[in-house]
Design goal:
The protein is 27% helix and 27% strand. The protein is an alpha+beta fold and 257 residues long. It has one domain. α1 crosses α2 and α3 packs parallel to α4. The longest helix has 20 residues. It is globular and about 55 Å long. It starts with 20 loop residues before the first helix and ends with a strand.
Length: 257
């Protein structure tokens, strides 16, 4: 008798994947909503850095998909290269195998095209597209298509001494939009979340920085210029893709741009 949740003998976890694109995106979105309302807003000072938030959210997303959140893929990683110094004879790592790679990753490279691979330009948390089967590139495990990208920022109570909070958020939005607009990308959605530890911060300055940064970089030609119109109080249940949000200990604000 097969135990509940146990894979048949000789079966790779990824071979049982049957995750619809819509289902995966909605499940991911619900995890983010729960993290905001049940963790961050309950105990905001449990998260003192962007890394704290990233680690917690990453763990929840991995747990959500479990064994079904793995993609079976086969190929060769790396390539052998001999250095110019013949006496050194350095060789790059090479591995040929079958891999089960997880859908959820952090710090995943996004700036890829047919001519280059930029390992320094990354998205905080991603969900890979389960349909992606790229094995052409020597480092194809880091070159799969993305289904969802999440960029995270944090504003601590002394945020006013930080440089260009809004520009930092704008930069995140920019790279997410650039990736979404690439011709080969299908069904990609994104979220940009700025977690604010101080409920009573100077929203005027924060909003002004966000607007100036975002409006200068995105494709929106007509940006809302009135301060009172740029922040909209919304319920956590209304959080949705392709939007920028400010998350405070008591509220969730949609940042219009």
């Amino acid at each position: 008798m097969k135990n509940e949740g146990q894979l048949p003998a000789g079966t790779r976890a990824g071979e049982l994947i049957d995750i619809s694109i819509g289902s995966a995106k909605q499940r991911l979105l619900e995890v983010v909503r729960k993290f905001i309302s049940r963790e961050f807003q309950i105990s905001p000072f449990s998260f003192l850095s962007e890394s704290d938030i990233k680690c917690a959210l990453f763990g929840h997303l991995r747990a959500e998909f479990g064994e079904e959140g793995k993609i079976p893929i086969s190929g060769t990683i790396g390539q052998e290269r001999v250095s110019s110094c013949q006496e050194v004879g350095n060789r790059r790592f090479v591995a040929r195998s079958d891999f089960d790679i997880n859908l959820i990753h952090s710090e995943y490279p996004w700036d890829q095209d047919e001519n280059r691979w930029n390992a320094h330009s990354k998205i905080d948390i991603v969900c890979l597209d389960p349909r992606s089967k790229n094995t052409k590139d020597p480092y194809f495990l880091w070159w799969q298509d993305l289904l969802v990208g999440i960029e995270l920022k944090i504003c601590t109570p002394d945020y006013e001494i930080l440089n260009q909070v809004g520009a930092s958020i704008a930069d995140a939005v920019h790279k997410l939009e650039v990736y979404k607009n690439r011709g080969h990308v299908k069904d990609f959605s994104w979220l940009s979340l700025c977690f604010v530890l101080d409920e009573y911060m100077n929203y005027g300055k924060f909003l002004r920085e966000c607007k100036e940064g975002v409006s200068g970089i995105t494709h929106a030609a007509e940006v809302l210029v009135k301060r009172k119109q740029a922040l909209m109080l919304v319920d956590v249940s209304a959080l949705d893709y392709d939007n920028v949000y400010a998350v405070t200990p008591a509220s969730l604000y949609l940042i219009k741009y």
